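Supplementary Methods S3. Complex input for the zinc ion-bound model.
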Amino acid sequence: MKKIFLLAAATFFAFDATAQTKVRNEVYYTVSFPNATHHEAEITMTLTDVGRGTLRVRMSRSSAGRYATHEFGKNVYNVRAKDLDGEELTVKQVEGDVYEIANRSNVVKVSYTLFGNHTDGTYASIDASHAHLNMPASFMWAEGLANRPIRFEFVDIDKLGWKVATQLKNEGANVYSAPDLQYMMDSPTELADVKTSYWDLVNTNGKKQKMGIAVHSDDDQATVDNFAKMVQKIVLEERAVFGEQPDYDFGSYTFLDDVHSTNFGDGMEHRNSTSIVDVADKIAGNEKYLLGTYSHEFFHSWNVERIRPKSLEPFNFEHANMSSELWFAEGFTQYYGEMLLVRSGFNTVDEYVPTIAGLINSVTASPAPGKYPQTQMSRYAVFTDAGVAIDATNYANTFTSYYYYGGATALALDLRLRSEFKVTLDDYMRQVWLAYGKTGKPYTIPDLQAVLAKVTTPKFAAAFFTDYIYGVKKEDYQALLANAGLLLQKAQPGKGWLGRVQSKPSNGGLMITGSTASNTPIYKAGIDAGDIILKINGQEAKTATAFTDAVKDKKPGDKIAVSYKNRTGNHEATIVLEESPAYEVVTFEKAGKELTQQQKDFRSSWLSSKVK
Ligand SMILES: [Zn+2]
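Predicted complex, serialized as structure tokens:
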């Protein structure tokens, strides 16, 4: 035992001067940026006490909060390994993302170059302005050593003018730690000239927590401070739903935000932070638009980070976890993220009603939710959540986002609880939090049903889960919304509609580029992806607007003649227009209907601030 310790200690001194701070067995990364301009980082990972023999190190293929599988191994090269004496070890790439090292000395130092040039919540992005590191996209790890503590040293970042923003634990200077691989992978890190704005928040148990935003953008400090005040309002409104905030690890929660017009918009929740990536010139002038992601992601600090489905535990970094519960984890979060913007005063009811219509349309206007339950849509996240492939899919008929499907379910459940039981979805969420979030006990769908039974009746809960969660029954949204004085009505009454058409000019006509949906007139006329439209009502079809031009001023029942070709030759078809199934939602006041006191009270109890 002692001998191994001495060897390990010697190792530390062999590698660098910060050895004194190291803990035995820990995985030690150094990260530097000698070629940031060309999007590269140089990373070393030092492993001690690994034993002789074959060591397998690898990149991840999935990322915390992203539900599809990704290939992070493609942006790693110059992979080398050395032993304790600095002697080169043989490295063999055995899979795209897996390397085997023939290890002689119990200590291995692996080094590689990382390329990253995609700023979002999933990948890595390195340039002269920052290193935006999502950990699974950036850091190799060794199989079998997942429980070891981890330490990072960000080298020479002061010279670049960068500070560190992360939920990793600061160990002084530019050294940060994580208790194990699971936590490290969940801790995205922004190295940049970030501006921060922190505030203290006392939890209901009296514990003070440090909350803050850390922003990489072209804003001045006053803008960041002012924006932080807006975020504070949302934080308090969200806390009011659950009655308390989680006790964040290391006493702190940080919103990391990268704002630039060249970014790829994203929001990725983590245990004590969130990685928000905004597509905007800067925060100034866009505050209200940017708050939506904050609202959604912070709700996750309860729902999914702590109220956690068993299916997502633990993170599998070799293959994305599949979950049947994303309708709850993401869908209910989607509902609250939007609704809480009204409660916190950033959106009016009139600004909110299109969102309600969007949720309802997602389950009533497309064919998939009529056939497939939201549990199945949740499982399809392993393909649809930024999963990239080049072959065509039939999602127009087989998929509806679990964000909206689950959001529509949350909306209906909230309105039903309020009208049928005089309780609210907040009451339900609070009970789920107490039973499964605060206790850290992962849940299953039967667990969610049991909590609903407690808040309502076992009979109601059983029927609700059978019909709407496992089944494909749809709620009567018109009746439910009327409780709050909101009118659900057809969005385009009396207008001709042929369905959504994706097309582009090609092969002498207009090529249909995506599957048509089975509930649309164009599908019923036999037209689908790959068909090349030659004429519409006798006019040559050349531009992408040819269909919308032809349908303009037409009524349901009117016919459109289409000439098209495909591999079976030339064809004629007749599209019989229908009325669009899409709904819109308007307030009774806007619709010229009288709002009763009861409806006024219902709406106010639902959408007014709960912060005391
Ligand atoms: Zn989410």
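The CA atoms of residues 304 and 586 lie 32 Å apart. The domain at 194-290 is CATH 3.30.2010.30 (Zincin-like).
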